[in-house]
Specification:
Radius of gyration of chain C: 22 Å
Oligomer: heterotrimer
Largest sheet of chain C: 2 strands, antiparallel
Number of strands of chain C: 2
Distance between the termini of chain C: 32 Å
CATH superfamily of chain C: MetI-like
Number of strands of chain B: 0
Strand content of chain C: under 5%
Shape of chain C: globular
Number of helices of chain C: 13
Structural class of chain C: mainly alpha
CATH architecture of the largest domain in chain B: Orthogonal Bundle
Shape of chain B: globular
CATH class of chain C: Mainly Alpha
Helix content of chain B: 55-70%
Order of helices and strands of chain B: HHHHHHHHHHHHHH
CATH superfamily of the largest domain in chain B: MetI-like
Strand order of the largest sheet of chain C: 1-2
Strand content of chain B: under 5%
Largest interface: B-C, 99 and 98 residues
Distance between the termini of chain B: 25 Å
Helix content of chain C: over 70%
Chains: A alpha/beta (about 425), B mainly alpha (about 290), C mainly alpha (about 280)
Largest sheet of chain B: none
Chain lengths: ~425, ~290, ~280
Amino acid sequence: MTRRTFARLASLLAAAAMVAVACTSGGNSTSTTAGASPSISGQTITVLLPPWANVPKDILQTFTDQTGVNVDLQVTGWDAIRNKVAIAGAANTPLADVTEFDWSWTGQFGRAGWYLPLQDKLAPGVIDGLQNNGAFTVDDNQYAVCYSNDFRISANNTKMFSDAGIDTAPTTFDELTADLQQIKDAGVAENPLTMPLSATEGTATLWYLLTLAYGGQLFDENFQPAFTSPDSGGYQALQFMVDAVDKGFVTPGAVSLTDTQSDNRYTSGSAAVTLSGGPDEMVVANDPSQSKIVGDGAFMLVPGVDGPGATFGLPEGLGVMSTSEHPDAAMAFLNWWEQQDTQLALQKSIGLLPCSTAAVQTLVDQGKLVGGDTINQQLQHVAPLFPQGAPPWYTDFSTKAAALINAAASGDMSVQDALNQLASEAQTLQSEA
Amino acid sequence: MRTSRGVRIVRAVTIAVLLVWSLGPILLGVLTSISTQAEVQAGQWLPTSMNLSGYRALLTSGGAATTSGFVPSEIAAFGRAMLNSVVITLETTAVLLVLAVTAGYAFSRLRFPGRRVMFGSLVATLIVPALAVIVPLWRVMANLHLIGTQGGLLLIYVSANAPLAVWLMYVHARELPISVEEAALSDGCTRFQAFRLVVLPQLRGGIAAVAAIMALSVWGEFFIPLLFAPTAATKPVTVLITEFVGKYTTNQPLLAAAGILMLVPPALLAIVLSRQIRGLLSGWSG
Amino acid sequence: MGSPLFLVIVALVFIPLLLGLRLSMQKYSYGIPGGFIGLQNYVSVLRDPATLTAAVHTAGYMIVAVVLELVLGVCFALALNEPFRGRGMVMAALILPWALPSVVSSILWLRIFNPDNGLLNTVLLRAHILAEPKVWFSSRGWAIVFIALVHSWGVVPLITLIIMAGLQGIEDQIYDAAAVEGASAWQQFRYLTAPLLRPALAVALTTGTVIAIAIFDEIYVLTGYQLNTFSLMMQAYQTTFTKLQFGKGAAFAYLVTLATGLFAIGYVWSLRRSEQ
């Protein structure tokens, strides 16, 4: 047998071995002992979180001290987490024990069975003390518990307003339009409003916000589109966005802005109003290294039709993957995270807004939340974007919505056409689901 | 003088174009990296004063402002990520060079059955996009427990870049005149000795070029290490840099500073390798 | 000596390729596996009108990018092939665009193309070529050209190096003979260098095309999901990760592979023919 033939045979044999290995589905040997708490001390769990949830080591240490479980925290970009979960889910192999779980994933990842239902597995009282449970629930299973209480709130520049002769923030869309015109006419700002209108996620989020603020909904109970008729919230919202371009309230370049870029127009002092900011807005606005409007920014309630409008929550949660090899330790991690002192410590060090109602109240009472009063007020107007639970095609729908809104704002199609097309796409998606 | 004045002017102009083309946006990056976030947002090109906080933070592992958009522990990981990138690039390039030179030479000189099929199927994998194989590849790697290991990453890089490396070395080796080797062989050298003493020196320029290509390809890899090198011990700087985004803001000067810093090792490598790439005046050696 | 390499390639490339083929013939609905459906995924991709639009856009990127890359790549490689003082530094400058990840460079280029205060608009407005800021990426034609420009900015170093590798194999002696006969530099290039560069050109063309067809980051950072710029790879990506239709996504990717393969074969074949 020549050397070459031998080498090739060896290759083939190895290849066959590889095939055998590769074709065994990614097995996980979870030995869940039923019922009462099995010993988890000494185990190590892998936790996958985005950069803004990078828990400092000393805080993680308190978990290890409490339970004896070590944490291997892997930080990954937010988009990448989603992709990794999808790939590992498709390949049915373990990825991590605990991962970030965004509210928009509930319909897809929950239904695909990639995460464990939490409702009876966590320590008693944990879930009840939290907000946003509905966003993580589908088919009566809750797949994650909230860890970052994100929602949309507006903000304005009080100095620019007063320079134009306005002393109170608008609470209705009519007032807002009048105020913007006044600021423009007074020469205080050429383009007093800032909005993301590029074909990216932030644009769709803005439209959802304005739809709710106009008192509308995206879909009815049967997931039929509710935004095509001119008196619907969604239609009025898109019309407002397109009008803002036509009236020169936003710059012509708004159609290429993402949400972070749009927000930067506000913090750099070019715009007087931003509608879809986050609860962190004032922290950034008052930081001299990032903002040129230190001291001039203030939260503003999202405007509505007859008074303040509704906003919606975009919470992020922690979920336990079905392929996890240490589910009990993972649950313990969730329990630990949702403890009051952990939540307050995390808010202090990395700025995450807690999801537990009690913790938020504590922060407001102690005056630790910048703009806390307005935040508290806004929290009373938070409505879920999908009262029926997010559908599995939500991400797909968002992508299409962003693209069509961008087309309408660019003048490539009319508001009615864009919404009609979006509606028919949504109906197709719903019928395929 | 062999080169006429006209040619030299054309060459000088071309080099000038090259410098403007390559360095223009990089210069913009440098300016961005020493501006403040507020200046960048306002579209100000020249910063009023140099803001070195980004560089300082990255080079001293932290200690910068802790506001949203600035993630201190990510900054601290920068040094390790650069090290990871350098190590994996050097390892992979070394392995690839050995394999590509021997394989390229073998394919061009030796005759063995199945030669064309092997070569063709190897090079053909060049056209496969990562997306096509990512799910099965993940499963294979997971079953072999290679995820998050440097060895696993090395294997994937080698298999992903080998087609181009082998193809290039094959093309290069094929152009060498056989006469010198045959002389050596008839002088009593074994094929291996002929290879080592005669062929390799002649391949030097091509090897340097291929080394540069491979090193840069590996240095710039993103999608593969994103999935297969998620731990701090293996994550390269290309992946880390995409984590410098806050939830609501992206710290532009910091991102630009990180981008500029990660250009330093490849630039150094290019300078080193360029000495090996012969020019028309150096002639054949050996 | 080649067999360890072959072994690794078999394990990490060929096997996933085969497994991926099987995956491409399965139905997935939002991540939930269905059954084996043969070639239905492929048919569904080909029938979708969006695929055609994506293909048109992708062809645009490919043509602009590959032409630009080859022209600049050959010019730069020829200029760099002769040693001169400072050549090392120039080569370092050359490779910088390739060394920068495409996501980061796209963000940098945004500062140039930003309609409100980007460099391009600022310069054109000051020079009175534009009357008001133009939103370049709103127009399909401009968007494709600029995205291809940003893309090729990052790829030119690679193409240049490939051509340089090819130039390395050309002996000096042939130029001496030609110079003795009084051939001009241009004639030397046209009749000596260019034909001998053909194999390297095949490599360069194939590589450039493969990378151009796979464009993703530049499009996403510069234009998001805009309806007038999305490429084939973006479609494939969305099918896989947004819709979680892994089978259809794999089928899409294989179709793209097939198309790229046809181009590659075309290049190699036509360049080989002109060799004879």
